[in-house]
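for the writeup, i need someone to sanity check this before i put it in the appendix. the sequnce is what the collaborator sent (i think, or maybe the updated version? ugh). structure was predicted straight from it, no edits. if anything looks off just tell me and ill rerun, i have time this weekend
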Amino acid sequence: MPRVGRSKQLTIECEYAYPVSTKRLFRALTLEVGAWWTDPFRMLAPSTSLNLDPAPGGHFLETGTKGSWWIWASVTGVKPDRFLELTGRFGMAGAVAGAVAYELTPKGRGGSMLKATHVAVGDIGKSDWKSYTFGWEQLLDKKLRAYLRRNSKRR
């Protein structure tokens, strides 16, 4: 007899302020993502390359050795320096559909606010809530912030 499961929804929202312009933040989120989205937040191996092409039909793609690759998500919306939407599984196992939206807004004296929303529906376990909440905090509040601090003069 087939097993019938229930679909669950995961929604994570987080907001962070950064001391850089929305233009600089958007560049870090897109063209420089491989520099700060590092281990242990890779699917294939710590030494893989991670790229995001913010063009129509672009992908958030991890490339490994010997022809291995993993599409984290597809780019489904862009407003340069203001908004980025990605649709995909973002590393979740099983039958999952998900989307991540980044909204960037200017915040006094050349700073910016980033609101990130991750919504996923499907075979989502209890551990996914905890691990993805932790993961987004580590990536956006720790790793991205540290990267921007080290590379604040980049344009």
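The two ends are 59 Å apart (CA to CA). Residues 8-150 form a domain with the Alpha-D-Glucose-1,6-Bisphosphate; Chain A, domain 4 fold (CATH 3.30.530.20).
thx in advance!!
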